[in-house]
Amino acid sequence: MNKSFIYQILPRIWRDGKLNSIDDAFLSYLRSFGLDYVWFTGIPRHATGEPFVKGNPGSPYAVCDWYDVNPYLASDPEKRMEEFDALVRRTHEAGLKCIIDCIPNHVACNYEGRLKVHPWCDGDWTDTRKLDWSDPATASELIRILRFWADRGVDGFRCDMVELVPAEMLAGVIAAVKRTHPGLIFIAEAYERGNYRHLAMETGFDLLYDKSGEYDILRGILDGRRSARELSWNWQFLGDLQPRMLNFLENHDEQRLCSDAFAGSPDRTWAALAFAMLFNPASFLLYAGQEAGERASESSDGRTSIFNFCKPESLEWLSFFVQEAGAVSSGSGRRRKAASGKSPDGAASPEAEVIERYRKLIALAREPLFSEGGWWDLCYCNGPADGFDSDRHFVFARFRSGEVKLVFCNFSPAAASACIRIPSELAEAAGRELPPAVSVSVPAYDYSIVNL
Fold it and tell me: Residue 127: phi, psi to the nearest 5?
């Protein structure tokens, strides 16, 4: 699969929480980043208003009716399926594709349907009941469910907790659905690196979360608990699977990247983002508001809640930013600031500056050099004598058709200056002469790119 960029959003936390609010302006904004897919989380109808439900309106991962849309997402609940179909059309017309969730491990406690269910749940997911995969009816019904959504224009499925489901059963489901809808993609929420190869090569997933590899390592480096050397160990472990990985630094399960519980500020994130997007052809996932520096300030744990209605500050800001004409005419000072990306005194807003850096980084990652070219880890041939700290720095090269760029990621709280050695093997791989060394200066927690 080609390098892709995916944007995850829970429609219920965007503007007034309706499908119709994901309008042409917002979809055009997303497309302006060069994104490929939008993952609309929380579409199939889930349990709400029941004693067992967690929060209000409850978890999108406790589905009670797989052939329905959540009524609260519709401007006219009686026409909720039509409103979903219209959302799919708008998304496609904007040049984007749609992803929704597939949840093969469990359903809501009040589920009534043809999926077979055990009378118990996994762990503390007390709002769910475990699916019984020993009964062939479960696989048959899941195939029908996925085809139902694919027939409505859905282009792919993010599959929840796949490691808790028999892999051979999932393989049969994916193969059956792809026979009738060959263009679909299936993304695995996977946590154990030892399962990656089987899930990709035998089960048939197109992309897999690199949670226990890339995410955990980058998070540990930013926390000061782990070494940048582990990034080399991870790609060496993954080998030819690396293009099948989906890298991320946020999603609905994890703490917000810029929250106080994680990096604390956009200024501390750029080295990690550059590595995750630029090191090789792996795809990348953004979570709604991440590109504006969302901090989950309304949360007690640094996460945007999937159990309750909430209003993340960055999404409130973005709702005005992407509706520029109406926002300016409203006369609100904050809305004028958001719409123009500037404060009333003409200074660029912090959110707009973060957005612009994301836009430039994604555009860079989509260039053929970074999306298709070869990659070369340069850490092995550099050391302390050159100003290179193997625990806090990571340096690599990307090359294609004679073009070579060096990328230096500085995970340190201090600025870095280093003389980076360029091995002859890289010159041979790139097919051209290269300098034996190059000097690089990088701000704290940032990255620099040098043309070789």
Answer: -90, 5
